[in-house]
Hints:
Helices cover 9% and strands 44% of the residues. It is mainly beta. The protein has one domain (6-36, 51-167): Roll (Pnp Oxidase, Chain A), CATH 2.30.110. The strands form three sheets. A five-stranded antiparallel beta sheet has the order 2-1-8-9-12, with no helix packed on it. The protein has a five-stranded antiparallel beta sheet with strand order 3-6-11-10-7. Strands 4-5 form a two-stranded antiparallel ribbon.
Amino acid sequence: MAVASGNKGKVTLYTSAGQNAEVAEMGAWTISGPTLSMIDYGAFGDERGRQKPGMVEAQTISFNGYCDFTTGSNDAQAKLVTYLSSGTPIYSSSTPGTTAGPSRLRLWANDDLTLPGYGYWSQSSSTAPTILTVKSYVTSLEVGQDMGGVQTIAFTLAVTGGALEFSTAIA
């Protein structure tokens, strides 16, 4: 089995202007979920608790790295902070400019076509109705600094309306 090097990973999205932007200085990303919530429904006289399946909860995306609001003309880290404070969704649209806001969030495992493991995780946009229903929202931000002056930043997003899918389509 081929294993891809982690140094080819990255996080990208289209900004509201339809411009592809890499979120600079990111060093790690994770996807958790979806998860199934369980509902307790015990009754008097039960000797054990009982549960039944409830709703599927949204996936969570987290990515972090070094804080840098100035790298490149895209300043994607600063835009993500703005999306958090304004509640702006990141749509799944695969066509730039088809939404009023940012779109095409991608978590790259490997962005080099010549190496094994090329591909990325993204919001489903395979059918027209899902383009505007599958969204991600920035739900939290953490900024830190160590005594050497190095600032770190971490973002958490909730994926609503559908799950992330792995794709090897050429971007």
